[in-house]
Amino acid sequence: KLMNGKPLDGSFSYMVPVELPRFSNGESKAVLKETVRDKDVYILSDVGNYSCTYRMYGFTNHKSTDDHFQDIKRVISACNGSTSQISTIIPLLPYSRQHKKQSRESLDCSMGLKELENMQVRRIITFDAHNKDTCDNAVSSYTTFENPYPTYTILSKFIENEDIDYKNLLVISPDGGAFDRARYYANLLGTDVGTFYKRRDLSKIVNGKSPVVEHKYLGADVTGKNIIIVDDMIASGGSILEVAQRLKEKGANKIYLITSFALFTEGKNSVDCFQNSYENGYFNKLYTTNLSYVPEYIQSLDWFSQADCSKYMAKFINTLNHHESISFLLDREIQHEKILQKIKMVNK
User: Fold this and answer.
1) What is the DSSP string of 191-203?
2) Per-residue DSSP letters for 320-340?
3) Separation of alpha carbons 264 and 243, rounded Å
4) Who wins on pLDDT, 169 or 1?
5) Within 13 Å of residue 115, how many CA atoms lie on the same side as its CB?
6) What is the reported pLDDT for 2?
7) For the chain, how many helices (H) and strands (E)?
8) CB under 8 Å to 312, separation ≥6 — which residues?
9) Which of 88, 148, 160, 168 yields a CA-CA distance of 20 to 30 A from 67?
10) Which helix (H) or strand (E) holds 6?
11) Chain Cα centroid distance, residue 246
12) What was the pLDDT predicted at 85?
């Protein structure tokens, strides 16, 4: 039985089944199992989901960011120009840390965005891009680049869970690159902000990044303060854990880590470092989102908390699909008022 063309038993789904079969040498293709003719198509992909695997030359290969990005392009190609328009939703923007040249280097982020634009992608939606200005400059006026922040969702979870004195709170940036983000959090919470100055030796690369040669705190006295350390992503976690330890040694009270993406790129070694730091009392909890894959065993740990961004993403898609303004979803003043109201409710 149908009503307005939709089954009454709730079986209707807006999800289009997609198959991505692999040949034994690793080559792949995309197959759509339903028509998308004259539809607005939103292609959602978590390029950080390394739990996806495929067989190649007899061994099991975990999907990398490159593999996922190729799959996005395959699905776009499978749509074959029959859609009304195509939008990509890639919460963790691929290659976002490779957004500028330091020497003879590739510009992978710009190249990737231009590839999507050349395939007639109308809109690229990501979350908390590492460098939004570079992304905006990489696409022309045809393709719209949307970069919403999960800040409100994370802080809502934090305020619901944590019983702290917000008048005794300080937001800290672990380095200069995260300072604007930390200042935004501080503005929402109505508190002061501090930062660590991180100087790297750019002439060397160790484990994919330049080693830190100096790390100095700049800001107000942290003695007795509750601290939130904010960054866009945690890779191995060594840097943010060092900041937490140094703040604790300076006399900080409770310390919380907040990041949009917790990657734990060293696997079990990263998790063990966080566990040891937690047991030593260097931080109280890590708050992040479900915008990219985190293994279930990590989600169950006492020091880990994950904010659910699925409703926010659904609102984003629904609003765009109805050709309505998304300003209310991006308005920082509205978010600021909502956060203040939540804090007032908690303090009553």
Assistant:
1) -EEEEEEEEE-TT
2) HHTT---HHHH-HHHHHHHHH
3) 17
4) 169
5) 15
6) 44
7) 11, 17
8) 148, 150, 152, 153, 329
9) 148
10) strand 6-7
11) 26
12) 92
